[in-house]
Amino acid sequence: MAKILAVLYPDPVGGYPPDYARDEIPTITGYPGGQTAPTPQAIDFTPGHLLGCVSGELGLRRFLEDRGHTLVVTSDKEGADSALDRELPDADVVVSQPFWPAYLTPERIAAAPRLRLAITAGIGSDHVDLPSAIGHGMTVAEVTFSNSISVSEHAVMQILTLVHNYMPAHEWVTTKKGWNIADSVSRAYDLEGMDVGVLGSGRIGKAVLRRLKPFDVTLHYCDVHRLAEEVEEEMELTWHPDARSLASAVDVLSIHTPLHPQTQNLFDDELIGAMKRGSYIVNTARALIVNRDAVVRALDSGQLAGYAGDVWYPQPPPPDHPWRTMPYQAMTPHVSGSTLAAQARYAAGTREILECWLDGRPIRPEYLIVEGGGLAGTGASSYTVAG
């Protein structure tokens, strides 16, 4: 029998919800490009309920315990005596989330001789040290595409939030109890007519481009692998061969590339300085793609008119993280891919992966990052995202 260790984010401050704002969510059976949504044999949860927190348990407990397996769920993942470190040595499977990552470092993997499967409930598995996973003979899988559209919608929302100066205007009528129209609009613009670009045109980046086209903007993108000519023509896209060319051409830049050595710290003082004064950056990919303090300096100097993001490093960030208090920002915790609709899909995908692994059946190829200690290959390039 297997021990499955799930590291999920904590329950709501007010307790696990007794009810929800909506009675149902739309049923999504497939994604753009033809991939089907997760197809587990069954589910033991109600779609639209809060599944990604500790009490939600991704809807896995009944399924696993009915088969005789052990499920341990915790949000305690930091420190020498964390529940993660106490439970890991005899765990066969670890389930984690990009929003509350259980960092599977070389040391942790070495301390877990039975560990054979790491599942990301969502997309993005950079919290797993892949060389160590390969050497350990592990399989690493994620629920590809489960929350890609969720993230793309969030990115478009943050673009509009920055450009229209939504956060300060909202603050005037809520926190400050004022009206103050002049203050609210003194940094507000229209997105219409601007040049908007995405770095990375994988599933999320392409979805952002499609959602921005109706805003009558000029669209740009950068990716090592160019999109098909018919796609470029359909969306009237301008391709850029490198990040600097893209950054210097746009008013708004949305980041959708994975984190790896070539993208880490990519947006430093020099690259941000090459952008138009008063540009905006939205980052729903990974925090380390931008230099933390360079962003703060650019907002203070006016080089950037705004920065919005959904990703931090580390996660969760310390209380004194400068992005919490820097000006002209619209930061959120890492929630873009964890809407209640997305949770239904990545919970179902996690169960599908577990069903296959426990039954000795192949896991669907699009979910595999590392298979049994070898690179599975997701088709991701240096500027695309598998999710």
UniProtKB/TrEMBL annotation:
Subcellular location: Cytoplasm
EC number assigned by the record: 1.17.1.9
Enzyme class (EC, first level): oxidoreductase
First-listed, main subcellular location of the protein, grouped into a coarse class: cytoplasm
Keyword flag NAD: yes
Job of this protein: Catalyzes the NAD(+)-dependent oxidation of formate to carbon dioxide. Formate oxidation is the final step in the methanol oxidation pathway in methylotrophic microorganisms. Has a role in the detoxification of exogenous formate in non-methylotrophic organisms.
Protein name, entry field: Formate dehydrogenase
